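Q: What would this chain look like folded?
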Amino acid sequence: MRYSHVLGAAAVVGLAAVTAQAGMSVSLVPVVKTGAAMAADANLINTRSYDLMVTTTGGTKWASADLQFSLATSGNFAGTTFYNPTGDANIEPTSFGAENLKYDTYVSSPRRSASAAGSPAILGKAQYPVESGVGAAVFPSNAALGTSVDVAWGDTDANAVTSDGTYRVARFTVSGKGGANLSGRIGATNNSIAPVTFSNLYLPILGDMNADRLVDGLDFDAWFFNLSTTNVAGDANLDGIVDGLDFDAWFFNLSNTLPAAGSSLGAVVPEPGTLSVFSAAVLGLGLRRRK
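A: My prediction, written as structure tokens:
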């Protein structure tokens, strides 16, 4: 599916950590939920969605992908899982029966259409960066929410993409406080184009509005200076408005951190007085939180 949203620079700051190849680059972009989707399923209110996207240039035709990652679920991130509503699908459908299904967790293809030629096929477990061996893909579903993705997929039509642009590769919707470090690769049908690989592509933890892997005073600034706007930079819960709920997401996750893969999970101990300084600032504003 061609990605039609216009993306501001602030939407991707801190999110992209990839190895770009000539003709392809990868990014992870936050997706704001619609009011209709949250009305269709109240559980969606407490989730965050991100799109894994590829930008192609020079006639490059992306056609396949491998992806591996697990959500952080230990310690402060306990209870984190994927959002997978009733009626979910592992492959992006050609149409959605309900608005909330747009925020399911699924993979996509260069040309998502009603024709069989435009449909992606899930091939099994990923073979990059770790060869997972033969077996069914690991993917969350309504029956078994799960916390991991290990999947390889590709399009059955080598000529699926005919123009340069930015395309959705997959969408992930997370319920809870945890984030993840994504690793994988995206391949093209052009024999001269090497796959674009990525590792430690950061899906932010709740409250980390500037996506620097730590919930701290900089995230408070992002919230404060975007208060009462629709700017994604301060919208911690991605519900379309920067308000008291986003402050809560910051305050109750202050000092949580998710290092890059290979580092140990941990929490930074706030300096004495840190909470009181921010609390005093907010109390001075006389904010009223949305109910």
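Residues 274-285 form the longest helix (12 residues).
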